[in-house]
Write a structure and sequence with these properties.
By secondary structure, the protein is an alpha/beta fold. The chain folds into 3 domains: 130 residues, Rossmann fold, CATH 3.40.50.2300; 142 residues, Alpha-Beta Plaits (2-Layer Sandwich); 239 residues, TIM Barrel, CATH 3.20.20.450. Helix content is 46%, strand content 20%. The chain contains 22 helices and 20 strands. An 8-stranded mixed barrel has the order 11-12-14-15-16-17-18-19, surrounded by 6 helices. It has a 5-stranded parallel beta sheet with strand order 2-1-3-4-5, with helices on both faces. A 5-stranded mixed beta sheet has the order 7-8-6-9-10, with helices on both faces. It is elongated and about 115 Å long.
Length: 576
Amino acid sequence: MIDAIPKTEMPAEPGAARKRKILVVEDEFVNREILTAMLEPEYEVINAVSGADAEAVLRRLAGEISLVLLDLNLPDRHGLDILREMKEDPRTAKIPVIVLTSDKEAEVECLNFGAIDFIPKPYPIPKVVQARVRRTIELSEDRDLIRDTERDHLTGLYTREYFYRYAAQYDVYNPDVATDALVLDVNHFQMVNERFGKQYADEVLIRIGRAIVALVGASGGIACRRSADMFLVYCPHLTDYQAFLDAIVTAACGDDKGRIRIRLGVCAEAEKTVEMQTRFDRAKIAADTVRGSFTECIAFYDNAMHEKEIYAERLLDEFQAAIDGKQFSVYFQPKYDVRPEKPVLCGAEALVRWIHPELGVISPGIFIPLFENNGLIRMLDRYVWRETVLQIAEWKKKYGRTVPVSVNVSRIDMLDPDLVETLRDLVIKGGLDFGDLHLEITESAYTENARQIISTVNSLREIGFVIEMDDFGSGYSSLNMIATLPIDVLKLDMVFIRSVFRENGNLRMLKVIVEIAETLSVPMIAEGVETAEQLNTLREMGCDMVQGYYFSPPKPAVDFEKFICDRLSTGKPANV
């Protein structure tokens, strides 16, 4: 019925609000004049005297018309035909229509075709007409606003806020139906975007959305697109999750079999007493357990995950109290220079331990990743730095010797604009030299925001801090990149050491890395050394320093002093 036309904009006087446009389709002159007089003070009224005139106006101004007042008895066409064609055309389907009629029997038919309201003939008093028109326009605009905000524009699925609301309503009306909370996440979607382009990536998301609706829509299930590549599904309990996921993956791939991989997290038969958002948080926790796996694509939230989640929440809740109560204790693992015939203590690494009054010793493998993910690692790192500086100063005063100690500087720390000043003030207030505190920065940190990281590291080195690249050999850096990085020491990754010394391990790779350190003219530390065989091999290859359980596990400060005393017993005057 209506040709595709661009939406036009009517210029308005500066400072004046533009009036909404109302199309009055009425062939009787007197009726048109009455309606125009009623509405013109508030609206811009456009008149059409026939069906053809109405079509012409809608072709020209479809995107600007706020309301159509439609008479059923026109000279060239019946109003119902115009109403039906308007509702069938997507460019006019959203325009509300009020029918002008004296025929009561026509009202039901008009409602079936999409009319919103009626104004009887003869027309009621102006206030009644104005109120109906105003209310119809307000309801239509509110409906359009809700429609625009409740649906994802790409996939047509619900947005997250409306999804949670409608999912909760589902429970209200279906309290006895067992339901699943599902999270679908596309693996490495950003790479799909970069390799194949945004248009292809968007088509993948559209296909996923359609497949989800096709699979769960008939049973009353609903879905949303939570983020760029993550979908949430709330539906009656499924019996075959593998078939469900296979159907989604098949739809996502289209003709490109195997190109798209999706992981599925399931909170099966979710407890209705648990908040809706929490159910999906649990499904996501499950999905994250198979992130990056090439063999497992489906994971279920279970009691073990629940206990782990509760434990993690407790640690987060008690973090500040642990800081205030000094439950975190700094341990020290000795580093030995293995170039002399008898290895000599040359420093230490500060490692944090959480001694909880009720839970006992909490593994850093548990709380460090947790605090990294929640941003608390910055506060913990600063705590460790302060305690380490105080301990170095105490040993210096007690033994007249300085034990250089390295502390970890996380990726989050490196993004702090005040980092250089914070570390500088700590060392100065502790009465130390900058070279007494070594800073360990992981290899992976250099690959994120590289320019800013390198600038910060250069500033720290200029002051006098010693920079150790930690976890070298974990596979993040290119050799070309390593050659340009500002570092003073390479520290070989513990996992790498363990892997090369396993049966059939590749010792040639170890030799290559030692040669890289020699080429860069920086000493190399190997951590995680546990046996005499490992120590001797590393020494023969040219490794400079070693730390690990072969010499000692991390020790509290009071126990570490034994190593200082042993070092001083050699009678050498130099700093440790």
